[in-house]
Amino acid sequence: MSYSQQVFDELSARYSYQPEFLQAVQEVLNTLQPALDKNPAYQKNKILERITEPERVIHFLVQWVDDKGEIQVNRGYRVQFNSAIGPYKGGLRFHPTVNEGVLKFLGFEQIFKNSLTGTPIGGGKGGSDFDPKGKSDNEIMRFCQAFMTQLFRYIGATVDVPAGDIGVGGREIGYLYGAYKRLTTSYEGVLTGKGLHFGGSLARTEATGYGTVYFAQEMLKDRGESLEGKVCAVSGAGNVAIYCCEKLYQVGAKPVTVSDSRGAIYDETGIKVDVLKQVKEVERASLTRYAELVPTAKYVPVAEYPEGKHFVWTVKCDAAFPCATQNELFLEDAKTLLANGCKCVAEGANMPSTIDAINCFLASGIAYGPAKAANAGGVATSQLEMEQNASMCAWTFEEVDSKLHNIMINIHRNAAETAKEYGAAGNLVLGANIAGFRKVADAMIAQGVI
Whole-model pTM? Predict the structure, then answer.
C-alpha cells in the first residue's frame, strides 16, 4: 500500500463523519505519490500525517439578541490549519451548512492555494452556521459583534487574518472589524476585504472572479486559443460569479447563465452585469427579480432542473465557470458539458466539481483549472491588502489588478511546469497539488517538529 493511501485510510476511519474534508484530502493525495516517491524525506518526516491535521481548531458559542428581543444561539469556528509559510489566511463563511468538517475541507484547500500564490500566507478557514438571509442590518451587526467577541483572542495581523466568504461581504467585514478594534484598541490589518476608507484594497472585490478568468486565459493560450468570442456558462450569483461575468465581457467572451440557491437564469443575449449587481449587491434579492427586469432572461427554478443535473451545465457553451459552492458539478454534468462542446472549465468556487467529474475532465483532455489554482486570485489580493496595510499605503486599481494578473500567470506557469516535470503535461490538478505541497512540506521539514 502506498504512503498516501495509508494516510488516507487512517483519516477515513477517524473522520468518516466529515465527507467534504475527506473528499478534499483524497483529491490532493491522489496526485502526490510521484512527489513522495521522488523525495523520501516527506514520508520520513510524516508530512502527510502532519499536513492533514489542523494545528488548531477553535469552536465557540455565539449568543446574540434579535430584533424581537429573543436570544439566538449559533456555533462559531476557526480552523487554523497550517502556518508553515505564513500567518493563517482564509475566509469566514456564514451559512446554515457550516460545520467543522466543511471548514476543515476549506482550510485544507487553502493551504495549497495560498502556497501557489507565491506569497507568505498559511491556510485557515472559519465561520458560523448563522444565516444572514432575512436578517436586518442591526441583527447582522449584533451577530458579528458577538462572533468577534469570541474570535478576537485567536487572530492578529501576523497570526491569523480572516476574510470574507459565502455570507460574509463588505457589510459583515465592516462590523467584524469595528468589533475587533473596540475589543483590542488596535487599528491593524487583521481582516481583509475591508472598506476602502478603512484599509481595504481596490480590486479586492473583483479579484476572485477576475483571477479565474485570467487563469482560463492562460490555459487556453497554451493551446493556441483565447476566450474571445466564447459563450460561457457561469454558476452562482455572488461576488465571484458577478465579477467573473464582468471580466468575461472585458476579454470578449459572453456569459449566458448565472444561478442562486433557488434557480438559474439563461439569457442567450448575455447576462446584464449591471442588473445582476443591482439585484444581488443592492437589493439582495432572488434571481426571479433579475428575470423581472430583463425581458430576454429565462428563469428556471431548482424544481425544474433536469433530473440529477444542474441546469447551468446543460446550456451549450465553449467554457464553464463553476462559481457557486462545493460539489455543484457532478459526473453527469461533466458529461453533458463535454457533449455540448465545452473545451475549458475554470473553477471559481472551492471544490465545485466532484472527484468523478474531475476525472472525466482530465480524461477528456480539455483545459481544466482546479479551484486551488484558478480561484486563488481572491486570497492573493487579500495578501496584497495585507501588504498595503503593513506599509500604510494604498495602491491604485490598475496596480493591484496588474499584480493580480501576474500572480495568476505565475500560478498557471508553476502548475503547468510541475505537471510536465512529473510526466503529466496538461494535468493542472497534479501540477497544482504538487507545486503547492512541496513549498509547504519543505518549510515544515526546515522548521522541525514543533
Answer: 0.94
